[in-house]
Amino acid sequence: MIQTEDLSKAFGDFIAVDGVNLRVEAGEVLALLGPNGAGKTTTVRLLTSVLRPTRGRAWVAGFDVVQHPQKVRAHVGVLTEHHGLYARMSGEEYLLFFAELYGLRGEDGHQRVHALLEQFGLAAAARRRIGEYSKGMRQKLALVRALLHSPPVLLLDEPTSAMDPENARIVRETIRSLRAAQHTIVLCTHNLTEAETLADRIAIIRRGRILFNDTPEALKHHLLGTPLYEIRLAQPWDGSLPPLPSDVEIVDRGSDWIHLRIGDPHQTNPLLLGVLTAANIPLLTFSELPRSLEEAYLRAMTVEEPNAMA
Amino acid sequence: MQWPEALQPIWIIARREIRDQFRDWRILAPILFLTAFFPFLMNFFAQQMLDFVRRYGAELVGERMVPFLMLVVGFFPISISLVIALESFVGEKERGSIEPLLSAPLEDWQLYAGKLVSSMVLPLLAAFLGMGVYTLGLALNRVTLPPLEVVLQVFSLTFFHALVMVSGAVVASSQATSVRAANLLASFIVIPMALLIQGETAIMFWGRQNAILWWAVFGLLVLAILLVRVGLAHFQREELLGRELDTLDLAWGWRTFVRHFRGEARSMLSWYKEEIPRTLVEMRWTLLIAATLALVGLGLGVHLAQRFPLQLDLSEVQTNQRLSQWTTLWPMGSSYTFTTILGQNLRALFLGMILGSFSFGVLGVLPMLTTMGAVGFLTQALSNNGVPPFLFIVAAILPHGLLEVPALWLATTATLEIGLGMITPQRGKTFSEALLAGIARWFKIMLGMGIPLLVLAAAIETWITPQIVRYLLFQ
Question: Do residues A226 and A262 touch, judged by C-beta distance below 8 A?
């Protein structure tokens, strides 16, 4: 579990992280989104006790990041922005080195390393120098390093950015299985589709401050307003529409489609369908228009004043 | 945590790095050359040198050359340790591999020691191997080998040269923001080391090396401990990741200096009434150390005067002649004498501070040691020549010394504090900030107390002490 209270970090006059309040439970994935320089990496470094906060507090896996930095580091697996690999070592040697640093020595370390190499499809390349690895293989190796000691908390910075779709899928599946195994995961990413599919909650950070922190759906609702619905007609319809329920607003209309905004879809949609059917309007489909997280994110970036949302 | 368990991560880090070095031909090639070829070259050179000097009956020069060349054979491989150590932290930072290491559950000292050990092992191995090959070559050529003690001294010196260079370079590497900056800082290690080796060489050729070279080994050990301490005290994971720029920020330097100089004072009066006393209280233990050093200096002076007795010609005619010469050079009661005395004292203490800043405070005690040593020496020398020392102290030293010695004491304490600031962990302070804070404290103490005391002392020494001396000693 991760919890922060007013977590802040300043480098001289520059405030990199400003009063961040977060809570990520076990078995939850939080996607931390934000433009470059927003404070994502600094937040991750604060949560790994590599940086000391200038204000506020944070607990990771139950340990205070200032009071117990060693315990925090021992309970966190981190995939850093720079993968931090040693080009002259083989993948196996590299993992065994970190396994030893994390206390996995002897046969335990070997078994764990080989199991993970197998899981991530790196077993065949285990004895090759890392310098010969492709970008994607390097990223997988760095991820394996983060998972070596089965940490209860994972901080993953762009885990699939350099991977082909097949490998990205393996990583996403791994993240899902880790969530199911009650690991706490913070995902820093610019891949909004990935964030949407993996994260239980999205936190948008800008200039060191958390602007929004909620479920993807609630975030879209908050930033993009109530959802839009589309009615597709089986044939062009130019007749007038019957009187619609009061919270239905027609946003736009074409010859064979209508876009509607509905105040309370749960209550109104059955009524609306009944009204339209009764009026013999040739309905083909009735569906919610998909709204991407990207739209919501871009809207968030235009918010003038930070409107912190717990 | 048990010691073996605590030491294990050091070995894990060192082992990985050493393995990495064995795979880097840029490190291996020169080491192999210096181990396999260079000792034979030195053997050949030693043989030629011995044959040459023997022709002129100067075998002694040849004999002294043999251990010197052994030192050279050892020094070249260990110079590579400097390169390895310089890039130990900052090189990893540049390659982006430092962060996973910093995120691992390692204590700072374990990470630091791991880097220290890894930088030393391979070059030292090569150095000792080279020295072994050189010694074997000497034996095969039937050259008289140096005594075992000298061989031990040369091996010890080589080990400690490596330790000092590596510990200094690791400090530079953990403080620098780029490999380039670390390489530039290396001159602060290479130049003193070169001077040191020249000194050691002189001692070797001088021939009375037995005791003195062990002192050199001891000095290197102390220096290495200080450097390791500095490195550990200022090793901050945060600094390694936080700083990116090498630009000299004079404005920041000035603001830092002023902040530490002003302290918590809000006005000139509160600075004088509260900040200065607070600083003195903070320095109480260092004041005690400086006082002890003053007594040591005094004792040393007395000891030297006893060991090297000085015959003084204190006949009235001679003394009067010298006094008249001195008064021509230094007119008694003139403002020129006053400014000269004051200027000399200020210059000596300022130089002490500068030296102290470069030597963790160690060389900053020189003005205190030499002054007190001179007082002790003179007192004892006068006593040896029948002049009552008590009278000399009361007449020639005490009037202005009562103010001058405390000023010296305070300045020495503040200089020692600069060094202590550098070797003590300073949470939230960088190495530069700790240094600036120490220098600001020195100026605070000097402006607040030292300079006023020195001004008064110079005035007394110019206008009052000579009168008392004339009255009491030369009636």
Answer: yes
Task: Give residue B358's domain range.
Answer: 250-473
Is A137 exposed, middle or buried, given 0-12, 13-18 or 19+ CB atoms closer than 10 A? Answer: buried
Q: What distance in Å separates the CA atoms of residue B275 and residue A175, rounded to the nearest whole number?
A: 57
As a whole number of Å, the CA-based R_g of chain A is 24
- For residue A144, give how far its alpha carbon lies from the nearest alpha carbon of chain B (Å): 12
B57–chain A Cβ distance below 8 A for any pair: no
Q: Which residue from B minimizes the CA distance to A149?
A: B104
Give the 3-state secondary structure of residue A261: strand
Q: State the smallest CA–CA distance between residue A26 and chain B in angstroms.
A: 21
- Look up residue A33 and give its amino acid: L
Cα–Cα distance, B354 to B357 (Å, whole number): 5
B304 and B452 in one domain? Answer: yes
What does residue A11 show for φ and ψ, rounded to 5 degrees? -110, 100
* Inter-residue contact B145 to B151 (CB < 8 Å): yes
Q: pLDDT for B123-138, tens place per residue?
A: 898 899 999 989 888 8
Does B218 lie in the same domain as B330?
A: no
Residues of chain A with Cβ-Cβ distance to B428 below 8 Å are 52
Q: Which H helix or E strand runs over B75?
A: helix B59-86
Q: Do B19 and A89 touch (CB under 8 A)?
A: yes
A187-239 pLDDT per residue, tens? 998 888 889 889 999 999 999 999 999 998 888 888 888 888 999 999 887 77
A221 close to A265: Cβ distance less than 8 angstroms:
no
Q: Is the dihedral of CA B305, B310, B314, B317 positive or negative?
A: negative
In this structure, the strands spanning A2-11 and A55-60 are antiparallel
Min distance B38 CA to chain A CA atoms (Å): 29
Question: What part of B 370-429 touches A (C-beta under 8 Å)?
Answer: 428
Verify that B151 and B84 share a domain, yes or no: yes
Tell me the average pLDDT across A155-164. 87
* Burial grade of B25 (CB within 10 A; 0-12, 13-18, 19 or more): exposed
Q: In whole angstroms, give the CA distance from residue B257 to residue B198.
A: 37
The CATH architecture assigned to A2-85+133-221 reads 3-Layer(aba) Sandwich (3.40)
Q: Judge if B237 and B257 occupy the same domain.
A: no
Last residue of a domain, one of B185, B214, B242: B242
Euclidean distance between CA atoms A172 and A163, whole angstroms: 11
Test B237 with A51 for CB contact under 8 angstroms. yes
CA distance A44 to A158: 12
Neighbours of B448 (CB within 10 A): 18
Which of helix, strand or coil describes residue A38?
coil
Identity of residue A170: I
Mean pLDDT over residues A258-281, rounded? 90
A51 CB near a chain B CB, below 8 Å?
yes
Could you say which of A52, A78, A100 has the minimum Cβ distance to residue B12?
A100
Q: Is a pLDDT exceeding 80 seen at residue B279?
A: yes
Residue A83 and residue B96: Cβ atoms within 8 Å? yes
Query: Could you tell me the two tokens for B325?
Result: 């010469």
CB atoms within 10 A of CB B208: 9
Tell me the ipTM for this assembly.
0.82
